[in-house]
From TrEMBL:
PANTHER family (UniProt xref): REGULATOR OF RPOS
Species the sequence originates in: Salinimicrobium marinum
Keyword terms, alphabetized: DNA-binding, Phosphoprotein, Transcription, Transcription regulation, Two-component regulatory system
Protein's name according to its UniProt entry: DNA-binding response regulator
DNA-binding residue intervals: 124-224
Modified residues (4-aspartylphosphate): 51
InterPro entries in the record: CheY-like_superfamily, OmpR/PhoB-type_DNA-bd, Sig_transdc_resp-reg_receiver, WalR-like, WH-like_DNA-bd_sf
Keyword Acetylation: no
């Protein structure tokens, strides 16, 4: 799962990043309005943590741009500007939650997971695809109730494909979502082929009722058998 933190305060930004990385989230950072607009214009995120007070612009304008362009990113406003008007305006613009500063990092983590459960799992704790169950909170996968041991990247690839079931996912979109925004600097996608190959074998060995189908020259699609 991929998170963008838009926060101008460096120490806060790094603390939030460290907290979420401990939960196995892939975290990208933006410290200004300009950086934020650049990132959301190019990359996709599962959740955006958005500060209202940015040195070169208003975070609510970032939120407005996200919603006007129809992006599916979940947005949690994280701001010290804790007036009722700002909260109401943010929620009216389409924010999923509002977390006033100061806050405990444990609460931040809980809010992010709650928003993602609502968006990805319809509020449930598990994602069920065929005979596969995915527990996002604990990064666990089971097939017919038996644990499937995956490394972190294998889990992230499977989760991303499952949340885009029956949709064609390009190699570049998969790479960027699982490995980060700077993956476009890579010369090739050999690292993806390796993870997909290992993941396919593990799914086959456990008789999973899904198939990762390669679409030559484009990407992958997850199909239920």
């Amino acid at each position: 799962m991929k998170i963008l933190i838009i926060e101008d305060e460096k120490d806060m930004r790094q603390n939030m990043k460290a907290t979420l990385e401990k939960e196995n989230f892939l975290v990208e950072l933006a410290g200004t309005y300009k950086d934020a607009m650049s990132k959301i214009g190019i990359y996709d995120y599962d959740c955006i943590l958005l500060d209202i007070m940015l040195p070169d612009g208003n975070g609510l304008e970032v939120l407005k741009a996200i919603k006007e362009k129809g992006y599916g990113d979940s947005v949690i406003i994280v701001s010290a500007k804790n007036s009722l008007d700002d909260k109401v305006q943010g929620l009216d613009l389409g924010a999923d939650d509002y977390l006033p500063k100061p806050f405990h990092m444990a609460e931040l983590n809980a809010r992010v997971k709650a928003v993602l459960r609502r968006r990805k799992f319809d509020g449930a704790n598990l994602l069920q695809i065929g005979n596969i169950s995915i527990d996002m909170d604990n990064h666990q996968v089971s097939v017919d109730g038996r644990d499937l041991e995956l490394n972190r990247k294998e889990f992230d690839v499977l989760f991303y494909l499952c949340t885009n079931q029956n949709r064609l996912v390009s190699k570049s979109a998969l790479a960027e979502h699982v490995w980060g925004d700077y993956i476009d600097q890579a010369d090739n996608f050999d690292f993806i082929y390796s993870q997909i190959k290992n993941l396919r074998k593990k799914l086959l060995d456990h008789h999973a009722e899904v198939e990762i189908k390669a679409v030559y020259g484009i990407g992958y699609k997850l199909l239920v058998s």
